[in-house]
Amino acid sequence: MNRSGARDKAFKFLYQEEVQKENNIEAINLFIENNKIENKDAQQYIIDTINGVNENLENITEIIKKNLKQDWKIERISKISLAILKLAIYEIVYAKIPFKVVINEAVELAKKYGDDNAPAFVNGILASVVKENI
Fold first, then answer.
1. How far apart, in whole angstroms, are the C-alpha atoms of residue 107 and residue 98?
2. Using N-to-C axis directions, what is the helix angle for 57-66 and 40-55, rounded to 10°?
3. Tens of pLDDT along 70-113?
4. Domain harbouring 15, CATH code
5. Rounded distance between C-alpha atoms, residue 66 and residue 24, angstroms
6. Distance, CA of 63 to CA of 86 (rounded, Å)
7. Contacts (Cβ under 8 Å, ≥6 apart) of 63
8. pTM score, two decimals?
9. Is the separation of the CB atoms in 128 and 91 below 8 Å?
10. For the chain, what is the domain count?
11. Domain containing 68: what range?
């Protein structure tokens, strides 16, 4: 499994977490097992990314809020877009993955799983985050 595939799985777990409000190492391991993710690098990426997002969730949430337009509240963001943004912001700010790669992958996830407006919304928020953090 390549990095894009692992990122897709990490997104799916984060989305699942948004819906179920449950996260623990057993849930991550069960997710990996149920999705038959056998590649050790992919497993480690998923575990590290999910733990990283959750360890930095308060700051990541603040970054999202700070980059929303004035009349928007975080509660208005779809759970899919929110999971994508959390993943992408973690990768840009904490994992130090090149922002061009992260934004491209995030927009692709938004195209695949989000509504028609999701790709532009995700791109706009992440572009704002990059300007702020570079």
1. 15
2. 70
3. 788 888 889 999 999 999 999 999 999 999 999 999 999 999 99
4. 1.10.940.10
5. 28
6. 9
7. 89, 93, 129, 132
8. 0.89
9. no
10. 1
11. 3-133
